[in-house]
């Protein structure tokens, strides 16, 4: 399924119906007075968080969304029917902005969250409200209030416990397919993953966490280069970052038969860190774990040298062979539990 994480739309709540001007005309009621009913309220525009909705793609099919108008009041004190609310179902994690003011109106973070973006216009008053001792036959009514029109921008930020970061082909897709039921496209060329991918990871019999595969970043991503810049926002809601660095990217060494040069690994790691800083400096304070991937492509000596480049600590895995994967999952779970105070 195509992943769409930003949509522009215009919404309008329903207009209120106008009040009625009428008088009782019944046999045996010679002093019949005003009996005009009130107009019905217009429908609200309501956003509802729905876990069954995965993307904002379906909302792109329409640019104008309008709730039902309230019906006009009628005679014999009959009020007009209220306009039906327009309910728009969106993924959990959707942020709704006022596009003109570029201001966040609300977020929908929990299944079933229901927020009103535009209240419907109030219905008008029938002439019965204007009867007085000196005006027993009023013809005055009020019109219904107009609906509210607003231009909105919807943005979706993935809700995940763990975010996978790294250059294209760092092994993120292979890892998430190994540890969860997610099945991203995997190939041996850059930018195989074009959309964020969520997977639920089981740890033991009763524990699990959600991991997000963020499409590969490159240098300059914070300024719009490559594909990953439009997905940096999804890092915002992750608790722990797994920074994947591929051992397959080792540079050739001076000796053809000797170990390869590991120094580019640290440089690539720092490039991504710098992109996070330029996007949002607070990202650098987010708990992080460095994961050296594709260990099956490196020798023991090369792995040892690579580990020395990360004095803050790193985990070595091979998603292909499974080596180190379970140890990584338990380490991630422990980190999450520590952040949750358990």
Structure commentary:
The chain is α/β, with parallel strands linked by helices and 342 residues long. It has two domains: 6-156, Spo0b-associated Gtp-binding Protein, Chain: A (Distorted Sandwich); 162-339, Rossmann fold (3-Layer(aba) Sandwich). The chain is 14% helix and 23% strand. It has four helices and 14 strands. Strand 13, helix 3 (300-308) and strand 14 form a beta-alpha-beta unit. The longest helix is centred in the last third of the chain and has 17 residues, at 263-279. The chain starts with 5 loop residues before the first strand and ends with a helix. Mean pLDDT is 85; it is low at 186-194 and 218-229.
Observed structural traits:
5-stranded mixed sheet; 2 domains; 23% strand; 14% helix; 6-stranded mixed sheet; 342 residues; Spo0b-associated Gtp-binding Protein, Chain: A; single chain; 4 helices; Rossmann fold; alpha/beta
